[in-house]
């Protein structure tokens, strides 16, 4: 056992002097420790975010409006300003290396910034020929390949709106997302490779396209060489013509992309972020917390369906080389990503906490990481043992940054900074500009106690809206229903007296399997479509950064038994319609699914029971419609 809070790393004077945040603070003439700087950043948001715009020389016009006006959830930033994400991401010396691409098959591509700009210009011209303009939506069903990044930047340059899903999602999950935003163009691969196998998705793409009535064109990226027939354009046709690269400058809050919630309580929420908020937030976070800039090689293992892809490509904003990887993290073995980092001279290596714990359990001992300065961990809490393994087996002088935030803001609320030490299981600080507090049930801030993670002041990268939510009611209900005027995020957090933080996981229910996040409602839509299934409940027993077992409980229709055939059909449907990672490890028959009086499934209490909480302590029977069924979920003693 590793003691939580054990000191693992301290920044040397040389590290502090070289840190990008140090140069920023010197420019401002600010002194004091990090906690003092953080307090200034949240108590004087207009001064802080103005300093970010000025320090990084954001390309655009600021306008004469106030930096911030109004309060959450209606705060407006930099009124009268105009800018474009792509224009800021694609500035710099054309000869520097902007993008490196690798896949598990061994392929490697590289783009200089000049070459990337040329490709973006070609695809931009192709989108214009398809009629795409400001405000139109371009949806993408693509893995983490250069074409995804190029298509996004081309879309953003037009003031059009991007949205993407990973190609291991099934057609229903994809259309649940894309149908809400009514895209004009779909960019899609014919298949992908994962774990040494090829997966043809051409039929799924046709099904998705057929369910999107507003679609005017499908652009195929032939990764497997499948024949698209006359179903749309080929990628090379889209990029066939050269054209000048231009940028449509848009207001600060103009939609940049649409990300999606996991869909736990219904259809995935289409979360819209603006150009300006993302530019400022990612400049701040990547430069000051990840300590990234020119000369760095930035990697994060992610799919295009996770917000970390959007965060990864933000490395272009700070002048770093972005390393894209398509494939399994564990093919041909668990050490694959560490070898990739060594071969490409990665300076910042990001991944999900489960990969770090899997590497630890597999006894991986990475080598050749001389250039590595930072490691990022996110997606779930990293246990103290994972922290300690990084320093004992990966590199003793690396800065390990466990980060926690969310799709909702496309960044981290709490994380690391080069000025502070690393302690096992502890996130060093609240991020600049993020007014994070822990609230007790009465809505009062607490220190040294576990509480609800809340944000008490607005941030620029908070959603500008949810798509198709003109009144803002769904947005307000999602974050501000519990504490009016205060953002409730849905995580448990403990803030320590020195500003350090410990995250204890979600206070709601999300299935996160291998980095693919999926809401339980999406799971139920597949399972309960079967006539044989009367009701169902899915529980992921994973905790503290370790992937647990995925358990499916079903109540069967009258006269039905759980045959091998039914179990096989359930697993096949979940694999094809959600993802291969969401196939249950076990399927159990129970007499009923526990529900509240209002009919909501009790996922959290059942999970507690499966992890050892006594039935009588897991839920209040007076609040349940059928409390007698809870005992059927208790593990055998």
UniProtKB/TrEMBL annotation:
CDD domains: AACS. Residues 549-600 form the AMP-binding enzyme C-terminal domain. PANTHER family: ACETOACETYL-COA SYNTHETASE. It holds the Pfam family AMP-binding. Belongs to the ATP-dependent AMP-binding enzyme family. Keywords: ATP-binding, Ligase, Nucleotide-binding. This is Acetoacetate--CoA ligase. Residues 88-458 form the AMP-dependent synthetase/ligase domain.
